[in-house]
Amino acid sequence: QSALTQPPSASGSPGQPVTISCTGTSSDVGGYNFVSWYQQHPGKAPKLMIYGVSKRPSGVPDRFSGSKSGNTASLTVSGLQAEDEADYYCSSYAGSNIYVFGAGTKVTVL
Amino acid sequence: EVQLVESGGGLVQPGGSLRLSCAASGFTFSTYSMNWVRQAPGKGLEWVSYISSSGITYYADSMKGRFTISRDNAKNSLDLQMNSLRAEDTAVYYCARRGDSSGYYRAFDMWGQGTMVTVSS
């Protein structure tokens, strides 16, 4: 149950895209199409932004998208807005109802 | 209103015990599996434990034998009994719903606001 690997930080100007990577193993990210992404603002609970690698829950803006290749998943915000500044965590199902999270990426809007 | 509300956090000495609770409302609790996820101060999220709608349980390796998850579907409540607590268990503990019954397969679609547990002498 090792944590998934995310870059500690990412940034971009308003309207610019930013992509966050999330690297795991064949036992988690690479083995299942159950990668999800969570947004967390300071002092708040996490919020589901992407599930099933690339699906958006209702109410999540379509500028958020997800993808996966092999053992690496990615979250892209296509046009950054001020309210997107937050911490983002990836998570993967790892079988037997066990989950693993990434350490998080702080996204800064310049 | 659909919500999860945790309670029971506080200050406990190393080696002590604490029981957290999560009250669910606004949805059919008995049809959802539930989880506990924690976040140490300034750190990332860490999955703690899972319980199915029928009571089957799973734990992260570092919690096995010390933590026990349980639920009462009649009372719409989820608990986490934590024993032999260590300083490294200090964290905000969130209850999180797994959204399979809402179509959000294997994802946590609803979170409580969290309850803080501090393990210190």
What share of residues are in beta strands of chain A?
A: 35-45%
Averaged pLDDT of chain B, please?
A: 96
> What is the terminal separation of chain A in angstroms?
35 Å
Secondary-structure content class of chain A: mainly beta
SSE arrangement of chain A, N to C: EEEEEEEEE
According to DSSP, the number of beta strands of chain A is 9
Question: What share of residues are in beta strands of chain B?
Answer: over 45%
Number of E strands of chain B? 11
**Pattern of helices and strands of chain B:** EEEEEEEEEEE
Fraction of helical residues of chain B: under 10%
Q: Oligomer, anyone?
A: heterodimer
Largest sheet of chain B: 7 strands, mixed
Shape of chain B: globular
Task: Sketch the major β-sheet of chain A.
Answer: 6 strands, mixed
Keywords:
heterodimer, A: three-stranded antiparallel β-sheet, B: 121 residues, globular
Description:
The complex is a heterodimer of chains A (110) and B (121). With 110 residues, chain A is mainly beta. Helices cover 0% and strands 44% of the residues of chain A. Chain A has strands spanning 9-12, 18-23, 35-40, 47-50, 64-69, 72-77, 86-93, 99-101, 105-109. Chain A starts with 8 loop residues before the first strand and ends with a strand. The mean pLDDT of chain A is 96. With 121 residues, chain B is mainly beta. Chain B is built from no helices and 11 strands. In chain B, strand 4 and strand 5 (45-51) form a beta hairpin. The radius of gyration of chain B is 14 Å and the shape is globular. In chain B, 42% of the residues are buried. Chain A binds chain B through residues 1, 3, 32, 34, 36, 38, 40, 45-48, 51-52, 57, 89, 91, 93, 96-104, and chain B through 33, 35, 37, 43-47, 50, 52, 56, 58, 60-61, 94, 96, 99, 104-109, 111-114.
